[in-house]
Amino acid sequence: MDISSASTPPVMVENKLSSLSLTDDNSPPTPETITLDSSGDVIFLVGGKTPHHQKSQLLLASSKILSLASPVFAAMFRHGFQEGKTLSSRSMDPIPLPDDNPDAIILLFKVLHFRSRDVPWDPDLGTLAHLAVVCDKYDCVEAVAAWSRVWLMGNGGTGSVRGKVEDVVMVLYVSYGLDVPSAFSEASLVLIKDHSRSFELNPELPGSDITAELIPEHLAEDIQRAREGLYSKLDEAIATGIEPLIEMGGLWCVRTRIGSYFTTLSNHNLWPPSALRKTSVQEALKRARAIIEPERGAMPSSVQPIKAALGEALAKTVGGARGMCLDCVKTGGESAREGKCRITHEESKEKGT
């Protein structure tokens, strides 16, 4: 059935909204109505079903706009869902969306209905995480693509988050769900370089008791593998720092210098490898730069100081690290083989594939 034939005349919508506002003293509070389209032909009811969202709200929207943006909504209005019967029967009873986060649905509808003045430039990560879940559910990630890039990669945007691993994981989660490759690469690089502990990739969403598994679990292993690869390069850089000394033979001053080298590393928790792995790669570089040189003794001037040799090698290693490629993660590397990745692999060497 053509969706236009299922549309409800605006006057019927107004009558229905008016009837919803007529309550007696024993009735629950009248839900607030948010008008996305003054000529809308469908009403949705969000909120009021969980302790986190006790307030109900009505959304007056356009079925045509929602159908163009989302094949799931289009199917709903063509009897693909039980809720669709409400629209086609023209009774204009609100269509309940009890399982969807109200803030995310309202944000999504504002974007889809071109209510740009009402769309926040910097929504919090929790709302964006719920939006990613809603967009995945209704298959409308593409419809919010422009705003997703603004939120995640704009000047001072959410994608620039640093700090707690939970915050960075949330950026990774959102950028995966909203399909923003550059933000995903940046967040994965922060997890690889700036953090050392394990993490849950599909966290419990803020303001709810649910965990939405958008990200494949193997991604955590991919990030850990990329991180371990970087640690191995640090091990090599540390070994490179004493190669000139080893080449000089077994002189007493050389042996003393090698001993001082490893003692210094140990004092800064850069040696042995097990100690190094208890800190982040970025922190290891910071510690190397803070090294206080031991006495050089009778060492030839041609031998670089420990701090210079090690710092240079570590900085080169850390500076060469790259985030992961979202397209490769989603396609198992097929996008790289076909040359279809949206970021070049020179920008994303640690792609985990």
UniProtKB/TrEMBL annotation:
Residue ranges annotated for the BTB domain, each copy included: 40-121
InterPro entries listed in its UniProt record: BTB/POZ_dom, SKP1/BTB/POZ_sf
Identification of the protein by name: BTB domain-containing protein
Signal peptide limits: none
